[in-house]
Design a protein that fits this description.
It contains twelve helices and nine strands. β4, α3 and β5 form a beta-alpha-beta unit. The model has no long low-confidence stretch (mean pLDDT about 95). By secondary structure, the chain is of the alpha/beta class. The protein is about 50% helix and about 10% strand. The structure holds iron/sulfur cluster (SF4) and zinc ion. The site of iron/sulfur cluster has 8 residues, from α6.
Length: about 325
């Protein structure tokens, strides 16, 4: 807002009006506020111990690259924490190749090693091939993102284990968290509501814990951070991005946020307060080993094996 001064430093001209807090911020104070918030979130949710190896899930988009830049910066305060970027190549032609270039470029600049895993290597099939089969089989009950999500989670977990990381940081923003909460309520899925925590606990030795240091950063602020810091990122959307319910949740939340600033924070904090009470009503998951791939699962066969078998009609992966 031209003409007004930054509420924090009171020296530089304001660049951004943070409606939910009423602050006018200059570029410098804005970026510092994001970095401080991430640091505070890590502390608040006990996301990291002082000497851990952290894998950062990097897609090549603005959120994951902003997160990578901030975590690389915060590493100065945590010299015994080591950082490695992990990128999953789902095999989406014309999209993921470009994203990989952005991931590589940023990792090189930050001197963070990058580990890439692909669906093709892990599961013998690319997402393009899988979705082609889904369409051929007319198995349209799930969205492409639902199929992709199952394989991505598995790929990420395997990649983190391969590099010896004890935690995976993902760039889920406040918007993602509020949308997911609303979607889980709309679906009546209380178990998922409990599971989607800012920091997961250790539930199985083969499941790497996940942390979400951006869970209290609004998506538009993550984008603004990338823009101010001139972080190169991919901004073309995935050709399969199709989650209808998430799109509706996004539209609803953005509309309410516009009229009532702070709504997304209110939803996020409400769930955080409710979670301990809900947790007591949900049965604890009992893990077994998948009869096919030997990965942990709560069923006889894991979701990944079940899904691949179902689509590819093969008895084994
Ligand atoms: Fe996978 Fe959906 Fe993300 Fe595309 S938008 S990479 S299909 S989860
Ligand atoms: Zn399995």
């Amino acid at each position: 807002m031209s003409g007004s001064y930054c509420t924090v430093c009171k020296k530089r001209e304001s660049f951004f009006y943070r409606k939910y807090s009423g602050q006018q911020l200059c570029k410098k104070c804005f970026c510092e506020s994001i970095e401080n918030k991430v640091r505070a979130t890590i502390t608040k949710y006990h996301m990291l111990k002082f000497d851990e190896k952290l894998a950062v899930a990097v897609s090549g988009g603005k959120d994951s690259l902003s997160l990578l830049h901030i975590l690389a910066k915060l590493q100065k305060y945590r010299p015994r924490t080591s950082l490695i970027a992990i990128t999953v190549d789902e095999g989406i032609s014309g999209y993921r190749d470009e994203a990989l270039r952005f991931a590589e470029e940023n990792c090189k600049e930050l001197e963070v090693p990058l580990h890439i895993v692909s669906f093709k290597t892990l599961f013998g099939v690319t997402l393009d091939e899988l979705i082609a089969r889904v369409r051929e089989n007319k198995q349209t009950e799930l969205t492409s993102c639902a199929y992709c999500g199952v394989l991505r989670r598995r790929a990420m977990n395997i990649a983190a284990r391969e590099v010896g990381a004890s935690r995976i940081a993902t760039a889920h923003t406040l918007d993602d968290e509020a949308q997911t909460a609303l979607m889980n309520i709309l679906r009546g899925d209380i178990t998922r509501l409990v599971k989607e925590k800012p920091a997961t606990t250790k539930v199985h030795p083969m499941l790497v814990r996940k942390i979400k240091p951006f869970c209290e950063i609004p998506e538009n602020e993550s984008a603004l951070y990338a823009y101010i810091k001139k972080i190169p990122f991919q901004d073309t959307p995935c050709p399969y991005a199709s989650e209808a319910l998430r799109n509706d949740a996004r539209t609803i939340l953005n509309t309410i946020e516009e009229k009532h600033a702070g709504t997304k924070f209110a939803i996020f904090h409400s769930i955080e307060k409710l979670r301990p009470a809900i947790e007591q009503t949900v049965e604890k998951e009992k893990f077994k080993t998948c009869k096919n791939c030997k990965e942990p699962t709560t069923q006889n066969y894991c979701k990944t094996c079940e899904m691949l078998t179902n689509i590819l009609h093969t008895p084994k992966i």
